[in-house]
Amino acid sequence: NDKVLVADSSNKLIRVIEQDGNTWTLPGGGGEGRDGSLGEAGMTEPTALAVDTHQNIYVADGDRIRVIGRRSLPFVETLNSARQGYIDGQRRRAQFNRPSGIALTGNGSVIVADSDDLVVRQISDVVRGTKVDEAAIEKLHFSAEEFRLLQPARWPFDPPQNKREIAGTLAEIRGEIGPNDKPSWFHNGLDIAGGYGEVARFVRDETVLDPHAVQNVGTTRELIRMPTMAYIHIRLGRDQNDRFLQETPFQAEIDSASGKILQLRVPRGTRFQAGDPIGTLNSLNHVHLIAGQSGAEMNALAALILPGVSDSIAPVIESTAIVDPNWNEIETRGTGGRIKLTEKSRVVVRAYDRIDGSAERRRLGVYKLGFRIFRDAAQAPDIHWGIIFDRMPPADAIPFVYAPGSQSGYSGTTVFNYIVTNDVGGGHYSEGFIDPAALNAGVYTLEVFAADIFGNTTSKTTQFEVSK
Length: 468
Description:
It is a single chain. By secondary structure, the chain is mostly beta strands. Helix content is 5%, strand content 35%. Strands 28-37-36-30-31-34-35 form a seven-stranded mixed sheet, with no helix packed on it. A six-stranded antiparallel sheet has the order 12-15-26-20-19-18. A five-stranded antiparallel sheet has the order 4-8-7-6-5, with no helix packed on it. The longest helix has 7 residues, at 144-150. The mean pLDDT is 90.
């Protein structure tokens, strides 16, 4: 009752100010998001605080709701899942998306402003309100068509109508799927190539709403997160020599001895217009655009339709392989032989895309992939489009999209080995197989498909045999 608590987000701490002005830190110096005693625990990005009648402190921290003090000794614990998203139900699996406000009711319920999910949520022993389903969650976020209608887009460089080279698209693998447990992840945006030190500009009008819109200052991943767009790999408000551009709204805390920028922020409510300078490109020589709300990122090629962008080049299918559950390719035997299927098998397609105006060396990810199986071409079923990159897939779906050997980013080699028998789209993913037990004896044609976002499609056929 005689103290003031401050969520010091930039320093990832909670500060306590006594009535006499003394200030101390709570909790200690543990790793980001770590639970434990005050000395062991660490915060990610505390943004809001509330205290109950028992002096327990509730914290909106990153994508988590955390509490300090509910045990006999001071202890930091997380109430919900650590994953970003939107899931109702039992609190241990419930997911939030960058909550920014928190309050407590007289009966002990926790009320959360779940900012990037655009809803107010309640954590309680008593079910109140509405438990939303997938369809209701989807309505909270823009579709690509709705996003395009909000306002036109321009290229992030001058002249605003001049087409630039596309260097990367949504959900491409970064890293490698291999035997050595190398890290791998989905690319979450659209890379547009530019020159080192070139001025990058906002592609649409937008207002800063997040008090921590600026992140990763001083790294190659320095970025600004707007409500529906993000811009990465930019020296925000600065030229290639770290000198601030004229009339920039970015505010810096600078070390007086070294001259190094310690913190950088832009006030909430700052309005940027399309064409305003963001800053300059760093050594990665491209601007990485993210389209969509945080946690609901969509394919920027579909969401923006940049001036003059076109694609008349169909994706390339380099190879098709049918593999057993241990990833061994099932091969034909003998002259004129064919693949014989005796157990559940996966289909792996090595494919890539290109776009008009990009160099041949630019191998982009494919927008969607599918397959069908038939004996009589005249009665071929519809294509099952199992993998679709209209939205950002969940992070842990990457081994459901990419087979071993897939890689990008570690070297000049780019390989996209897609597992087309799996289903991956939006927030869902599942494993699938060709099961010979479900097929009659005979010779079958497997036809695989790869399509880009502009409607260009290519296919490749393989035959296999099922014996009974």
